[in-house]
């Protein structure tokens, strides 16, 4: 039951992000620096969104019966809305760095808060990862890749707990993630 609750919370956060995007707001603390990561995925999501709209139009024209046509149309409209919400969430919920914490996220699906005092180093290091998955868990290592790439590495002083999207907890000591401007991330870390 906990996994279903987490999924429903994820969906609610996704769709509420459309409102944040339309109002021009982002989930960034007043004393924090936004570290956007959505840039590389934007074109792909926009293409998927357009395809979903075209498919929805095709289902309206296809003669597959009233019930079948309605089910497919609703599914395609939901898919298009979900893609728009995912893009909005990725834009309005960037990684953030504040005097208190580094916060790394994947849309509304994953949110890890690392206390600033627990970060030994934050460095630029571009790496390509073999997995196409966004979240990859290893031996006390977490990779949050965009298009199979990361460009910032946070090495922690001690292992910190990280909750997977469906609720299981792991410990991580190294976090590799992608930001659009890795120099800004390192500068913000060094300046504080």
Q: How many domains would you count in the coordinates?
A: 2
What would the average pLDDT be, to the nearest integer?
Answer: 88
**Counted beta strands:** 9
Strand order of the largest sheet: 5-8-9-7-6
Low-confidence stretches are none
Key attributes of the depicted protein:
alpha+beta, 2 domains, five-stranded mixed beta sheet, four-stranded antiparallel beta sheet, 31% strand, transmembrane, membrane, transmembrane helix
Written account of the structure:
Helix content is 41%, strand content 31%. The chain has 192 residues and is of the alpha+beta class. The protein folds into two domains: 2-28 and 38-92; 95-191, no CATH class. Strands 5-8-9-7-6 form a five-stranded mixed β-sheet, covered by helices on one side. Strands 1-2-3-4 form a four-stranded antiparallel β-sheet, with helices on one face. β2 (95-97) and β3 (101-106) form a beta hairpin. The protein is elongated and about 60 Å long. The model has no long low-confidence stretch (mean pLDDT 88).
Write the topology of this structure.
Layout: H1 2-23, E1 33-35, H2 42-61, H3 66-92, E2 95-97, E3 101-106, E4 110-115, E5 119-128, E6 135-137, E7 141-144, E8 149-163, E9 169-177, H4 182-191
Helix pairs in contact: 1-3, 2-3
Keywords: Membrane, Transmembrane, Transmembrane helix
Transmembrane segments: 42-62, 69-88
Summarize the structure.
This protein has 192 residues and is α+β, with helices and mostly antiparallel strands. It is built from 4 helices and 9 strands, in the order αβααββββββββα.
């Amino acid at each position: 039951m906990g996994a279903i609750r987490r999924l429903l919370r994820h969906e609610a956060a996704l769709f509420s992000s459309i409102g944040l995007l339309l109002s021009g707001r982002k989930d960034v603390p007043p004393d924090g620096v936004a570290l956007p990561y959505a840039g590389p995925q934007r074109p792909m999501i926009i293409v998927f969104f357009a395809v979903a709209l075209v498919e929805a139009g095709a289902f309206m024209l296809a003669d597959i019966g009233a019930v079948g046509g309605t089910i497919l149309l609703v599914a395609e409209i939901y898919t298009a809305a979900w893609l728009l919400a995912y893009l909005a969430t990725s834009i309005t919920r960037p990684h953030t760095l504040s005097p208190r914490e580094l916060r790394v996220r994947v849309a509304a699906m994953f949110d890890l808060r690392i206390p600033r005092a627990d970060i030994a180093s934050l460095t630029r290091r571009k790496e390509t990862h073999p997995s196409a998955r966004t979240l990859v868990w290893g031996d006390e290592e977490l990779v949050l890749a965009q298009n199979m790439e990361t460009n910032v590495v946070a090495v922690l002083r001690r292992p910190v707990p990280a909750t997977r999207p469906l609720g299981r907890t792991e410990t991580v000591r190294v976090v590799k993630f992608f930001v659009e401007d890795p120099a800004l991330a390192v500068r913000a870390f060094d300046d504080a």
